Amino acid sequence: MVRARYKQVVDRFAAEIQAGSLAPGTRLPTHRDLARSEGMALVTASRVYAELEAMGLVSGETGRGTFVREAKLPQAHGLDQQATPDGMLDLNFNYPAMPGQAELLRSALRQLATAGNLDALLRYSPHGGRAHERATAARHLQQRGLFVDGEQVALVTGAQHGLATTVMALLQPGDLVAIDALSYPGFKLLAETHRLELAPLPAAGQGPDPEALRALCQRRRVRAIYTMPTLHNPMGWVMSSAHRQALVEVARQHGLLIIEDAAYAFLERHAQPPLATLAPELTVYVSGLSKNVAAGLRVGFVVAPAPWLVQIERAIRATTWNAPGLMTAIACAWLEDGTVASLEEQKRQDAQARQSLVSQVLGDLGCIRHPASYFAWLPLREEQRADRVAMALLSQGISVATAQPFSTGPAPQALRLALGSVPLEVLRDALGRVKQTIEAQAY
Prior knowledge:
Blueprint: H1 5-19, H2 31-38, H3 42-54, E1 58-61, E2 65-68, E3 89-91, H4 101-113, H5 131-141, E4 153-156, H6 159-170, E5 176-180, H7 185-193, E6 197-201, H8 210-219, E7 224-227, H9 241-254, E8 257-261, H10 275-278, E9 283-288, E10 300-303, H11 306-319, H12 325-337, H13 339-362, E11 368-369, E12 375-379, H14 386-394, E13 398-402, E14 414-418, H15 424-441
Parallel strand pairs: 3-13, 5-6, 5-7, 7-8, 8-9
Antiparallel strand pairs: 1-2, 4-10, 9-10, 11-12, 12-14, 13-14
Helix pairs in contact: 1-3, 2-3, 4-12, 5-12, 6-7, 6-11, 8-9, 13-15, 14-15
């Protein structure tokens, strides 16, 4: 079978990149110049670059062109969690922990071992959780400004599972979902897995542009919007009340499902009310205990209107049947005895201390961040390449994420720094090395 000519061009570029003939950071011909030099249509030239990008060999940047990617940086770097090598400083993923949490777990396990209802944890439970567990979660969510009863809450195996069951239950392959141009990679992966189409929304102040969403809805049939109104990942936004109202207005006008991700909302002491309180009939609210307690405690919460919750519970059954009884029992005990509230307060103070270090060390590099968050967005200078900086840092034992995993459109040249996983006493040095590497990579 004769191989399509454009495939031959793809193969030639791929071979040159992999052999090192085209070095990382090399700017490739424009789509138009490639079409002219190869005697092919412009749309075919664009297809060449699209295939190379899908292979992880190049990246395209609006207004700048197409560049050879740093080949040694794994394509899924910043997206897929891998085992962290000994000695690696992880500024890629957030799993904040407080001193003494291991002892808290030992104590909880001892108490659980002597509990009279231990046998119940070995049996199936209702898909959305037992009534007393759901009521405990509902009381906890009151601290987030969400006043619901336990019948409106389903327990899931972490917030990511909550997002997954929401997508499974309420969306269909091919549905169009509006999302920030920079957003949480876990939802991007869900969209890819469930064959959803994502429509990037530009920013307007501290959140997605409501007028851009309105215009999108007027052009196309949008099924849902995924958003993080309180401590957005990766930008750290906290939407104002007016911004939230504007989004809700568009959602009501066009019948959009709102998927509200509140994974980091606990860090903001004085957040505006959740979207789920402004539009309870349209909103699925998802949160969990991975960030405020521990990443290994895979317990999350989904709040949704009653008809949707029935569908979500069926998705829970299809995936895990129910949240693990042992983890749920520990989580509920900690919610009831104040352990979670205490850990949340410690982590608020910890996040602020880490952001203070960011301000001191990286303050002149134009970081975009919120003083209560566990991450910082670091735009690079126009002449710099994020993958080259990330690779240089990896060689020094520091792992950071580029913008690529967070981008739902063309990726800017930027780094996302996760601040919550490195011990506080070594974070200053790690940030200093990030700054030195960025400055050394300028050319």
